[in-house]
Amino acid sequence: MFHVSFRYIFGIPPLILVLLPVASSDCDISGKDGGAYQNVLMVNIDDLDNMINFDSNCLNNEPNFFKKHSCDDNKEASFLNRASRKLRQFLKMNISDDFKLHLSTVSQGTLTLLNCTSKGKGRKPPSLSEAQPTKNLEENKSSKEQKKQNDLCFLKILLQKIKTCWNKILRGIKEH
Amino acid sequence: MTLLSIALGTLFYLLQAVSGESGYAENDFDDAELDDYSFSCYSQLEVDGLQHLLTCMFDDSDINSTNLEFEICGALLDVDCLNFNKLQERYFLKTKKFLLIGDSKICVKLEKKNMTCRKVNIVKIVKPEAPFDVRVVYREGANDFVVTFNTSHLQKKYVKVLIHEVAYRQEKNENNWMRVNLTSTKLTLLQRKLQPNAMYEIKVRSIPYANYFEGFWSEWSPSFHFRTPETNGTGETDPVLLTISILSFFSVALMVTLACVLWKKRIKPIIWPSLPDHKKTLEQLCKKPKKNLNVSFNPESFLDCQIHKVDGIQAKDEAEGFLQDPLPPQPEESDKQRFRAGMQGPSWPSEQAGITPKIFRGESPFRCLAGNASVCDAPGLLSSRSPNGREGGKSRPLVYQDLLLGPGTTNSSLPPPFPFQPGILTLNPVAQGQPILTSLGSSQEEAYVTMSSFYQNQ
Prior knowledge:
The complex is a heterodimer. By secondary structure, chain A is an all-alpha fold. In chain A, about 65% of the residues lie in helices and about 0% in strands.
């Protein structure tokens, strides 16, 4: 009896708790009329674009992040989920408070709208370095400004991808 | 060991129960105290750059809010909760950290204990800033008033589209406000819809256009006062227009007067010429008979005349004999007169220099004395002495069916016979009749009678 109680107390409930997030990882996109995206997210994305344009002189190489993650059909919510989490990485950059505010709004606003139940606690958040493998060759000789420039370029592309994916979602909702 | 496992299991389940969704705090305080702490809030976005303002206050102004605090949790950036600041009886929070997506929870706390909470959405309780700089300009040419105002939301990024309400009234009518809704910042009021020479008050307020952002009416803008002109433009009539209108009036009056005066004599005959009346025309052409003129055809009235029956053939021979005699030349005027007298209708035989008398044998009971044709002037006969003698040269409509010319006619002009009375012969002295024959001969050339000649003789 001791073994039975021990198993039921310490075995099954944690197992249930661990398995539930894996079983239910769906995202339910709220705000399906697009009001939140058009009136809040798009405003902040455009502000970020305007702020980045002052500094950027980007290369045309597509980072690896987008080769691994794209806004394919039926994977739009997953892509936005990953992209929004990626935006958080840029908060660590040496940028202005308003820039951080816009980044936080886009990131957290997207996650709120996606309303994904998968929290992904066991996953390591992707770092900025993974997105640009070519940077490994350039880090030896690049200055902090060059690194920042590259990050901004990546951010610019990321924002455009997020915007495109949102438009695709809303267009699909209107067609249905 | 058993006790340890039981304690850990109990603790485990208690942790689960506590960490689970407990619902809103207000459900735990579903008692009379909830009504005491009822409150209302409104938000104002981008009041200072990127900072927003959230203001809350108790509905009951008598409440003792000494130790009461407000807290908002949820839908915030990078933080879980934020506390309000208190200013007199109002609680406000000025921050950039509103996510503007999703619901938040605002709670009233008393010594860190939630007294009441309410779920709110910041974007649904937006109260715009009041419009300002209201101006009214009168346009004299257009007879209207242009109302313009300004709002700070034109430069904002979130709440950009608003509905503005313009309210105006005549100052003596305190509660009779006229209201107009519009989305732009310019309004036109027609002068004819306002009272002249009156003082008006006008003000504006705004509300978010119900798209994503919703909320409440803003405060009224400061009022603007203006006065309408004294009259509706009558006192400032264009002098040129006034002059033209007066001249037009008098011109029309003059034309109407002239039309009435000249209607019968000049206008009507041109517009509606009357058809000639043959009887009247003849009467006019011929002399009017004297009142005491005996025009009866009663044979007894011709007792003074010598009546001779005329043999038709003999008369014809005699007429031909007269016509063959050469006639002396006469002055042109007399020629013309006699020419007019001798004009004939188209039915005359052209080979006749004279006129073939047409005598009914035995039917004409009488005839006038030869040479005394003037006695037998029939009334209404055409005469060269007619009033229109000057005009008769062209188309004097003289129709003769019978004319016997012979010597012995007087010097006077030929009295023509009555056109439709065959059998009446008039004689004219040859000496003076030569021009008559000439005129008769030449009259054939231009002999035609038209109805218009009748008309002219009128």
